[in-house]
Amino acid sequence: MNDQTMTPEERAANLKGMGSSRKRVEDVRFTQGKGNYVDDIKLDGMLFGDFVRSPYAHARVVSVNKEAALAQPGVIAVLTAEDLAPLGLHWMPTLAGDKQMVLADGKVLFQGQEVAFVVAEDRYIAADAAELVEVEYEELPVLTDPFEALKSDVVLREDIADQTEGAHGPRKHHNHIFTWEQGDKDATEAILAEADVVAEEMVYYHRTHPCPLETCGSVASMDKVTGKLTLYGTFQAPHAIRTVVSLISGIAEHNIRVISPDIGGGFGNKVGAYAGYVCSVVASIVTGKPVKWVEDRMENLMSTAFARDYWMQGKIAATKDGKITGLWCHTTADHGGFDACADPTKFPAGFMNICTGSYDIPTAYLAVDGVYTNKAPGGVAYRCSFRVTEAAYFIERMIEVLAIKLNMDAAELRRINFIKADQFPYQSALGWEYDSGDYHTAWDKALKAVDYDGLRAEQAQRVEEFKAGKTRKLLGIGLTHFTEIVGAGPVKNCDILGLGMFDSCEIRIHPTGSAIARLGTISQGQGHATTFAQIIASEIGLPADDITLEEGDTDTAPYGLGTYGSRSTPVAGAATAMAARKIRAKAQMIAAYLLEVHDDDVEWDVDRFSVKGAPERFKTMKEIAFAAYNQAIPGLEPGLEAVSYYDPPNMTYPFGAYICVMEIDVDTGEWDVRKFYALDDCGTRINPMIIDGQVHGGVTEALAIAMGQEIAYDEMGNVKTGTLMDFFLPTAWETPNYITDYTVTPSPHHPIGAKGVGESPNVGGVPCFSNAVHDAFRPFGLVQSHMPHDHWRIWKIANGLGMHG
Amino acid sequence: MIPAGFEYHRPGDIASAIGILQEHGDEARVIAGGHSLIPMMKLRMAEMGHLVDLQAIDELKGIQIGSDTVTLGAMVTQHELITHDGLAAAIPLIREAALQIADPQVRYMGTVGGNVANGDPGNDMPGLMQCLNATFELSGPDGNRSVAAREFYEAAYFTAREDEEILTRISIPVPGAGVGQAYEKQKRKIGDYATAAAAVMVGNGTASVAMTNLADTPIWSEGASAALADGDVNGCVAAMLDAIEPVADNRGPVEFKKHVAAVMLRRAIDRAQSRAG
Ligand SMILES: Cc1cc2nc3c(=O)[nH]c(=O)nc-3n(C[C@H](O)[C@H](O)[C@H](O)COP(=O)(O)OP(=O)(O)OC[C@H]3O[C@@H](n4cnc5c(N)ncnc54)[C@H](O)[C@@H]3O)c2cc1C
Asked: B157 is in which domain, residue-wise?
């Protein structure tokens, strides 16, 4: 078959454009062990850095003695805060408007904090020498509880003890960071006072960690001859890192090249800047040699950015027949020793104000108090868009709690409160404009798919059997309908360190009709090279297989704010479509010239422009590409390329309906997921197979978080879950089968209607698993308990309800 | 997670291995599969100047199935325990327990000798061997001796083995026909040590019961075993609960562990009884 005989559908299929389950082009190298990660980077004469870390959660650093370490053969340098101070690099700014010690400056605020950086000829010498650095500490009282911290006389941040004004307004106490208020407090309290029914609960979303398979690391190489610094690293936002490095080091930005090579998972852990990055840069400047720093698993878990740790006190008001009238939430947010949350500047609690969820709640109020404690800093968006998962967990628990209070079915309670399809665009009480949605359709489809009524009947029977002593297993049905807010975001209200959160794509078409595209984002497993090529393929009619995609090198890629918060498809994906459309517009002029007709007399047809009314007269995109380079076309510049910087007019609001069926052994606390159904609506679906993969991965992370994963501390501030023996990462064995499903409600403002999906399964999955646990015990009187639902905590629920005789 | 430096030795027979241990004293340690030792070295909780690898010593390998006794070379891997059909026929309990250790990757490397010599209360094989009334053969500078598994464990990481001795073989009496066996283990995930585990043999008027990870050594209880031999399950469980001394950790508080210990024991008893002749 050739171009002449193929139908438009066949030609479209050949492009493997949008809607095609095209195989991931990245996997060829990943499945053969040919990826190129930071630790694979080996430069001539490269040195290695390793940290001396604090064993204490709160202590004064009395002295650091480097002598024994420096005496070791192969040790080049030992850096402390004193060495960094003359460069002004002993502290660095955080993304949240705070500052953070690079190396301990007089005291340490969490266990695992960086105290000294040892630079040696190889990694083993560095590790040995780190043990020889003698640090004298004087222990200080430790605060691990944020509520205690707000009352305590112990001052954690002595550097800002007298500052009553923080980056986000007044500070109420020396361990208080900010108060962030949204919505109408008085109106909400008035509604609560008069409501038929008010349900109130503390919903705790415990501290956990993104724990990407590849830990964080960097290789800095300062070329003293050219004055250029090349910095390879595990950066989810390479361009922003370049700007930050320039601002804090004083090296001109054009002399810095930042490269994010392959990244082995980020999940928010690789958004911020870490002491290791700064130290590798300083060490390279000092030694004139490349310096590599790669943390190990324990360092990753104990010192790089954690996630969650939100204590959410909630009140939800409703009429006696279940119509929700108001929502109130006060959150105490444990930020650890420094406020290093990775949120857009104006949102110190991220998008927590999406906590009205999928429901039409007319009046609401949210306040968040950020607090310092003796824990690691972070508070990153672990596979979620800036606290959306906390918000979703909160509202989905409050709905369940309200259903109990009303003695109503929780599925029905949701249904009667959903925002209706005709209410979109919907203005939420806490300030967002939801772009599109059809929650009722998704919900009904989900309930039908799992035979919800049948499940409830089975559950009722199980309860009888349990009471009759015939079984020791309960059945829980977990429900969740979540709404996300992703794709940060409009430059008018979203920036990071003053950098507007637009994103970008540059496309160059080669003379023979293949192409390269470069984006301001960086894939960490999401499959950008596969899906973004599909957008271009559909927009300009060149096969996706002929389009190379590159990201992560700031010398070549256009500036963008990176990949996190499900923003790549909503923002960079939009930029990709817009850049492709610019190319198509020029291609139209070229085609018209070649076909000797007016520009308006040709029309787009999958992979070509043809003359209106005479489809046999056409120029394919391949022919047009060649013409762009081989002939002078009056009024047009040669070449065929375009760049687009896209500032989205709004966020996108993906949603989904998840249902989990779980068996629970009341004697051992063991659980078994019998069924997990995930319906996602992410608008236009670019690659269904990749969407399925993202859902599988995200629900698995949700399972981990809900059912066991946590960063736990003892009262001394020691991390109790610092290895993968105790920090739960599910294996194939613990991972259930998933049933995926979808509806399609395109985003009205996105060029291709896509909304982003990578984080939905984590946002929806966590409440779904947790609700399943709660639901199993609901017939026995359970209202609320806290995650993670590991064996002993589930056992404790059963024990507390008198189920052990 | 980077171990300190060490010298590596790979002797070809038991005598040379003992010689190296003698030469370097407590600076030296034998390594079998390395799946307990290497993690400790990476955490720098175990540091030694000399590692004596037992892999090249053929005398430490092999499984022999006799009519009364089974012997396992110390270097037999957990994977071999699982895949040896003769062993599964003679003492099915060993395969059942080995399948609940860690994951396949660990089991390809980890050895039965390393598992019982290690002295970690989390290891499954020590309790199993106590249940089976196994005997450990040790070779040292002063020759060979045998120690009953039930006498071997003193405290966490402390055993009857002297520093310069090597555990060479394990001999296990073959339980008579009609003896039902079962191993029940609760863990948080694949690759985890037991929250609580129970090894049970019962039949022909005899019984033996041992528990794992519920004290700083494995617990074989004479009282519990005797009660079960008499058919008194509640008495067996009560005696066992008296004998264990669990401590709170990330797997849960003491109360929970005691509860789960009883559940595991009852389940193991049920299953063992259902398999008894
Ligand atoms: C992720 C993971 C999960 C695990 N889960 C479990 C589990 O659920 N249950 C379980 O039982 N184990 C578990 N293990 C431990 C595993 O079974 C080990 O392999 C085993 O405990 C030790 O055997 P080894 O051959 O690896 O010994 P090594 O690690 O080589 O040695 C362990 C110790 O025994 C000493 N030693 C070894 N052989 C001899 C000998 N012949 N004579 C004298 N001393 C000797 C060594 O000097 C060392 O002190 C797990 C390990 C890992 C890494």
From this structure: 58-173
Q: Which residue has the tokens 């975001």?
A: A489
Q: Which of A127, A668, A712 sits opposite B186 (nearest CB)?
A: A668
Residue B49 lies in a domain: yes
What pLDDT is stored for residue A377 in this prediction? 97
Query: What residues of B are in contact with residue A708 (Cβ under 8 Å)?
Result: 188-189
Pocket of ligand 1 (CB under 6 A): B 29-37, 39, 54, 74, 101-102, 106, 109-111, 113-115, 117-118, 123-125, 166-167, 191, 193
Strands (E), B121-241: 135-140, 143-148, 153-155, 158-159, 166-173, 180-186, 196-203, 206-212, 219-220
Q: Do residues B148 and B67 share a domain?
A: yes
Q: What pLDDT, on the 0 to 100 scale, is given for residue A1?
A: 41
Q: Is there a contact between A791 and B195 if contact means CB atoms under 8 Å apart? A: yes
Q: How far apart are CA A584 and CA A539, in angstroms?
A: 8
Which domains are assigned to chain A?
A: 8-35+503-646 (3.30.365.10), 38-140+215-263+270-303 (3.90.1170.50), 307-487+651-800 (3.30.365.10)
As for how many domains chain B has, the answer is: 3
Per-10-residue mean pLDDT, chain B, length 277: 93 97 95 97 91 98 97 98 97 98 96 98 98 98 98 98 97 95 97 97 97 98 98 98 97 98 98 94
Rounded to the nearest whole angstrom, what is the distance from the C-alpha of residue B114 to the centroid of ligand 1? Answer: 4
What is the distance between the alpha carbons of residues B116 and A761, in angstroms, rounded to a whole number?
43
Mean of pLDDT over chain A: 96
B67 and B145 part of one domain: yes
Burial of A405 (0-12, 13-18, 19+ CB in 10 A): middle
- Residue A553: predicted pLDDT: 97
- Residues B37 and B122 both lie in one domain: no
